[in-house]
């Protein structure tokens, strides 16, 4: 308790000495008032500058938010396209695998019937058309059978990508037209 009292007495003594020093330092009340006024003006200027910096900072943050939101939307659209393309590729590969297995089953039956009919020569096999998968012209990503002896997987996937991109661009145009009508 005595230590608390000593602190209180010290602080009160310090206040007395400081209050005694103030009148000695300033020669008149006018100078004190002038200093206070200068301090107020400086504080006002500093607060105005602070508010201005804060406003600029907030505007910059809002600009960044809008830019990042726009970029996020673009990335989400691109992601959706890539997912559709991947699903189309998986579906096409699955369909090709099913087609090959059905061809093998069919070829096994054909071989048995041909063995009864007679031997095959190389000319007969080379002139039979190859069955490949190609995207339908509607661009929906569904596949249809066509006879194309030189059809390659790369061409097939390129066509899938082209159709998916065309479909995406069409959807985007329709969305933009809808937005244009609402505004």
From TrEMBL:
<dbReference type="Pfam" id="PF07716">
    <property type="entry name" value="bZIP_2"/>
</dbReference>
<feature type="compositionally biased region" description="Polar residues">
    <location>
        <begin position="1"/>
        <end position="16"/>
    </location>
</feature>
<dbReference type="InterPro" id="IPR046347">
    <property type="entry name" value="bZIP_sf"/>
</dbReference>
<dbReference type="GO" id="GO:0003700">
    <property type="term" value="F:DNA-binding transcription factor activity"/>
</dbReference>
<protein>
    <recommendedName>
        <fullName>BZIP domain-containing protein</fullName>
    </recommendedName>
</protein>
<feature type="region of interest" description="Disordered">
    <location>
        <begin position="126"/>
        <end position="156"/>
    </location>
</feature>
<feature type="domain" description="BZIP">
    <location>
        <begin position="33"/>
        <end position="84"/>
    </location>
</feature>
<feature type="compositionally biased region" description="Low complexity">
    <location>
        <begin position="134"/>
        <end position="147"/>
    </location>
</feature>
<feature type="coiled-coil region">
    <location>
        <begin position="58"/>
        <end position="85"/>
    </location>
</feature>
<feature type="region of interest" description="Disordered">
    <location>
        <begin position="1"/>
        <end position="45"/>
    </location>
</feature>
<dbReference type="InterPro" id="IPR004827">
    <property type="entry name" value="bZIP"/>
</dbReference>
<keyword id="KW-0175">Coiled coil</keyword>
């Amino acid at each position: 308790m005595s230590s608390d009292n000593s602190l209180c007495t010290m602080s009160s003594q310090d206040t007395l000495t400081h209050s005694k020093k103030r009148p000695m330092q300033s020669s008149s009340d006018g100078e004190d008032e002038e200093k206070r006024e200068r301090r107020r003006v400086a504080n006002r200027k500093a607060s105005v500058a602070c508010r201005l910096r804060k406003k600029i900072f907030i505007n910059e943050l809002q600009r960044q938010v809008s830019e990042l939101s726009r970029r996020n939307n673009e990335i989400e659209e691109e992601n959706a396209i890539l997912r559709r393309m991947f699903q189309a590729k998986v579906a096409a590969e699955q369909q090709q695998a099913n087609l090959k297995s059905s061809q093998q089953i069919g070829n096994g039956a054909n071989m048995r019937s041909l063995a009864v009919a007679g031997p095959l020569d190389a000319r007969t096999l080379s002139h039979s058309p190859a069955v490949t998968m190609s995207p339908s012209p509607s661009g929906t990503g569904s596949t249809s059978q066509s006879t194309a002896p030189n059809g390659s997987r790369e061409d097939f996937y390129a066509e899938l990508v082209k159709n998916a991109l065309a479909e995406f661009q069409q959807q985007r145009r329709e969305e933009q037209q809808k937005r244009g009508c609402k505004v």
